[in-house]
Write a structure and sequence with these properties.
A hairpin with a 3-residue loop joins strand 19 and strand 20. This protein is 38% helix and 23% strand. It folds into 3 domains: 194 residues, FAD/NAD(P)-binding domain, CATH 3.50.50; 195 residues, D-Amino Acid Oxidase, subunit A, domain 2 (D-Amino Acid Oxidase, Chain A, domain 2, 2-Layer Sandwich); 127 residues, Helicase, Ruva Protein, domain 3, CATH 1.10.8. The relative contact order is 0.14. By secondary structure, it is α+β, with helices and mostly antiparallel strands. The structure holds flavin-adenine dinucleotide. The site of flavin-adenine dinucleotide has 40 residues, from helix 2, strand 2, strand 8 and strand 16.
Length: 566
């Protein structure tokens, strides 16, 4: 393919310069809190610590949200199924957080109506689920979406005409929130950075520094560009927020008193027009609950929940999980969904706290924060929705370890009302989208989706795009703009095609060719920011494609070539 010129892009190298400065700060400044792990929990702890006026830093071995925090069902929810486990406290807390998160980041999180079809014996089915849904409302769900509604069979089919009618008794409509999990974690990290925190990706913690049996910092390895340079970071408190990596006995910070039990979950990405429904859905089949989460142009269908003891880096969806999800959908919906319909897949590992029994379905979604005898603070378990509470509890425990007997009184967390970068109320975001479309000649949908990803900072992204002549879409039928590549490198810590196509944009799941057609152009735009020569660009593109096909494809189907025989 002949490459289009990187029109108007001045090779800047600025992101590399900024990273060098951040590494210098890590090596030379003493910190109050050093957080290891850039998932939502680590990013949340970073923002929490910074909001209390602490000097805080975060190191992440690869990219922000590369682990579980970009592989969720993308729901901010109370979790209806935890009601059946009688975990009312967890549901109430998660629903209170849902309300807060909707205020803190209206650009990244939106409330969606979800349909729960009632299938089964006439009276008992309806009474059981009505009672559960009423309890969900009472525990807090009614605050944002109002009380749930009962629908007749006809009203249910009006919304989702493909539901099988045998034993259909109607439906319940309720609300939960949908988010972009990777971008949300990034926004939390960026908000902390704007307030003075240091964040360095491709910086792996290799071990702890101890003096007199007390942790005084961590040894960090700069792993960018295959590098091996090491540095020592001194910090009064160190937090292990490494999620499922803590389950690996060979991990650098392993050996904690809490046992983490990884539970694997997979998702399918399917084009929206393949399943006719105006609302998302929660369907129940024996032994499992499956979500059909509405996503722009697509459905996310998941999830499975099974114990896992393989490698924790970059898990992939297995053929058995894919078939299990297809079977669940086809059992409730008359859509004949098959492997050919799957645009992409992804899998993730829940960092659950091990129960004495050992099942991952019953393992607690509650979190635990412990201070080890050497002072290291570990946080584990929980769910995305409750990250802010986990972060607050983590920093409280760290401060107690530093001798503050009652941090919630002396240095309280300030994140409950701290809006994330780019946040504004919906009407303001809507006006911005109209304004950007008019000012820059963008299609309405492109301007809206730019604002959905960047919030109020979309104005700066568009201005950069206008100045560099990069307001063109990156891919046909998708709204992402070329300028978002340079923006991601300069402001969002992106250092590879995978950072951009899998997490800053979610295109690697949504393009059946795993973004092969646009990867060279992304490599060119990113290379201009990171000083890559032509050879390096080609290697980065090849490396990205090999990984993307392995990680996000459909087993048995080669990207863009249809089924293969195994
Ligand atoms: C399939 C699935 C669906 C889910 N759906 C939902 C949902 O809809 N709603 C919800 O609320 N929750 C959901 N969850 C749960 C939620 O996604 C997780 O609880 C949350 O993302 C965990 O975040 P974390 O920060 O603890 O871990 P992670 O996101 O995995 O972060 C840990 C980070 O530590 C880094 N790291 C590891 N070792 C080192 C080291 N030595 N040095 C530096 N960095 C290191 C890793 O690279 C990683 O980025 C789901 C989970 C799964 C698996």
């Amino acid at each position: 393919m002949t490459e289009a010129p990187a029109v108007g892009t001045t090779p800047t190298g600025a992101p590399l310069e900024r990273r060098r400065r951040d590494l210098d700060a890590l090596a030379n400044e003493p910190f109050d809190v050093l957080i290891v792990g850039g998932g939502i929990v680590g990013c949340g702890a970073l923002l929490d610590a910074t909001s209390r006026g602490l000097r805080a830093a975060l190191v992440e071995r690869e990219d922000i949200a590369v682990g579980t925090s970009s592989r969720s069902s993308r729901l901010i929810h109370g979790g209806l199924r935890y009601l059946e486990q009688l975990r009312f406290g967890l549901v109430r807390e998660a629903l209170a957080e849902r309300a807060r998160i909707l205020r803190l980041a209206p650009h990244l999180v939106r409330l969606e109506p979800l349909l729960f079809p009632l299938i089964g014996r006439p009276i008992t089915t309806r009474a059981f689920y009505e009672a559960g849904m009423t309890l969900y409302d009472i525990l807090g769900a009614r605050r944002d979406g109002g009380w749930h509604r009962h629908l007749s069979v006809a009203e249910t089919l009006e919304r989702s005409p493909a539901i099988r009618t045998e034993k259909l008794r109607g439906g319940l409509v309720f609300h939960d929130a949908v988010e972009d999990d990777a971008r949300y974690a990034l926004a939390v990290a960026r908000t902390a950075r704007e307030a003075g925190a240091v964040v360095v990706t491709r910086a792996q913690a290799d071990g702890l520094m101890e003096e007199d049996g007390r942790v005084v910092g961590a040894r960090i390895r700069d792993v960018a560009n295959g590098g091996t340079s090491a540095l020592e970071v001194r910090s009064r408190a160190v937090v292990d927020a490494t999620g499922v990596w803590a389950a690996d006995p060979t991990a650098p910070l392993s050996g904690g008193s809490t046992r983490i039990l990884p539970s694997r979950g997979a998702h399918l990405v399917v084009r929206r027009d393949r399943i006719p429904s105006t609302v998302g859905m929660t369907i129940r089949v024996p032994g499992k609950v499956v979500f059909l989460v509405p996503w722009p142009g697509h459905w996310l269908i998941g999830t499975t929940d099974a114990p896992y003891d393989g490698p924790v880096d970059r898990p992939t969806a297995g053929a058995d999980e894919i078939d299990e999800l297809l079977a669940a959908v086809n059992r409730v919906l008359d859509v004949g969904l098959g492997r050919d319909d799957i645009v992409g897949t992804y899998a993730g590992l829940r960092p659950l706290i091990a129960p004495s029994g050992g099942s991952t379905v019953t393992a607690s979604r509650e979190h635990r924060v412990v201070r080890e005898s050497n002072g290291l603070v570990r946080v584990g378990g929980g769910k995305y929705t409750t990250y802010r509470v986990m972060a607050r509890d983590t920093v409280d425990v760290a401060l107690v370890g530093l001798g503050d007997a009652s941090p919630s009184a002396s240095r309280p967390s300030r994140t409950a009302n701290l809006r994330l970068i780019g946040a504004a109320d919906r009407p303001e975001l809507d006006r911005l989208a109209v304004d950007l479309a008019a000012r820059h000649g963008l299609a309405g949908s492109a301007a809206r989706s730019l604002v959905d990803r960047h919030g109020t900072t979309a104005a700066e992204v568009a201005a950069l795009g206008a100045a560099s002549d990069q307001l063109r879409p990156l891919a046909p039928d998708h709204d992402h703009l070329e300028v978002e590549v340079a923006w991601a490198a300069r402001h969002e810590l992106a250092m590879s095609l995978d950072d951009i196509l899998a997490r800053r944009m979610r295109l690697v799941h949504e393009l059946k060719d795993r973004a092969a057609a646009i990867a060279p152009r992304v490599g060119q735009l990113l290379g201009a920011e990171l000083d890559w020569d032509a050879d390096r660009r080609r290697r980065e593109v090849d490396h990205f494609l090999a990984g993307a096909r392995r990680e996000f494809g459909v087993p048995g189907i080669v990207a863009g070539h249809g089924p293969v025989s195994d």
